[in-house]
User: Which sequence fits this backbone?
């Protein structure tokens, strides 16, 4: 697993796409403008090769939402997959977010890769 500080920097970078800080992501908030970035960040970390356990532990530690268990991460990833399947605008936003994320950690994988893992 990555060092916590490096992972925190990566999550901060990914959150910057949404003009959010880690503190805003940590907030116990169910507003769409906070939940969607959390979901996309979890899915993106999975694409970057983290295991379900690593994502759960890392997001639980860094985001400190009290929701950082395995089932929450799996739900986040499934939510991104299903939204991309039914909403073209959401899919376009996901693709733009992936391009932003590739600047930090290049990956040539797609949501189909996630479906195979989970």
Assistant:
């Amino acid at each position: 697993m990555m060092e916590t500080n490096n992972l925190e920097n990566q999550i901060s970078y990914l959150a910057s796409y949404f003009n959010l800080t880690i503190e805003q992501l940590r907030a116990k908030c169910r507003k769409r403008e906070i939940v969607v970035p959390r979901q996309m960040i979890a899915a993106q970390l999975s694409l970057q090769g983290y295991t379900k356990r690593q994502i759960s532990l890392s997001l639980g530690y860094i985001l400190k939402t009290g929701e950082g268990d395995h089932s929450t991460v799996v739900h986040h990833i499934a939510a991104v997959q299903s939204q991309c399947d039914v909403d073209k605008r959401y899919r376009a936003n996901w693709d733009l977010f992936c391009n932003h994320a590739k600047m930090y950690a290049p990956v040539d994988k797609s949501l189909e890769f996630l479906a195979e893992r989970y």
